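Entry for the shared binder. Reason: the reviewer on the internal report wants the predicted structure included alongside the sequence.
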Amino acid sequence: MNCFLSLRFLPALVICIIGAWGAVAVADAGDTQDVQTIAENNNAFATQLYGRLAKGESDNLFFSPYSITTALAMTYNGAQGQTAKQMSHVLHFTLPLDRMNAAFSALSGELDSNAQSNGTQVYNLAVANALWTQTGFSLNNGFLQAVTQSYGADVQQADFINDPTQAANEINSWVADQTGDEIQNLIAPGDLTPTTRLVLVNAIYFQGNWENAFDPSLTSDQPFHVDAKTQTTVSMMNQEEAISYMENKQLQIAEFPYVDGNLSMAVLLPRAVGGLNAMESSLTAEKLKQLLGKLSDEQVQVYLPKFQLTSQFELAGTLGAMGMPLAFTGHANFSGMSTSVQLQISHVIHKAFVDVNETGTKAAAATGVTGVAEVVIESQTVFRADHPFLFLIRDRVSGAILFMGRVTNPSD
């Protein structure tokens, strides 16, 4: 995620998501309840932003609310007055700033420590933050201390005034390194200008293997119903396993844990082929929490398509419409960052990539497997994701939604 602050501009806040993450420097562990509060704040923002991005669209969708929240939390440390008030409203920040920063640091530490089990790496989940400033540009010590100590941001300098292209190349190279080369050219020509003074970057990378991998020999070409009239052929994975599952008249939910069980992917499948829009329009963080709370172990025959998604968004307009327009105008107050010039946000750029296959969920590595085996179905319960569905990757310890998206056509 990159935040660009400039002379009157914060020319961009860019968020990069892809599959797994690297560790952020961790402050002293915050209060457990504060970590829970931050997770709930993140989830409230996640469902509202999802609703905005999905409304009126029919394409595949994928983003990391945790990445966006983290980058904006760093930016929030420099906001003052009405600008800060609007940001806290949209992001659902409810904790005092010092406790919020400590909770973000503690949650990052928890996610990092849970990736290890008995000295063995069970999944890669890494968050990396960085901050580029114009050479010679003065930042307030309080802001610098917050982003470096609580968010582990690496502070670097760049020459936006004389060579914005080189600065963009340096930042794009850092992003590519942090994301296994999955996010390329995050900053486009023109995103940085001689007025840029500060760029905040958050990169997220995730790679995890399923606790119960799918057998590639059972993957076969099967129909996926894009809508009531259109279908396409997809590589459909198949297994019969005891998984966390719930159903009601409107939907089915199946949860697939990654190795060690702390992280999982939950798939929300509407009963009706054309039922995704109705499910999305009624989805809130509280309703999602209630639905996931009803999951219980059940033997299920699972059909889940392999898919790869890449999404990119310019979020400035969306965030402004959600209730924080001041941050993107000449009336923004980011005096907590610097008092030498007036700063504002000009762009919020977010790019994400996900690959789901038989082994697990990866930021990279497409796997092409075909099979023609017929499967004898012995269980009563069938979860067949052969039409549009919503999915999310979450930390089951805190409940925080790390990634969220929908699949309307796995073939796209």
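Summary line for the report: The chain has two domains: 2-209+309-354, 216-306+362-407.
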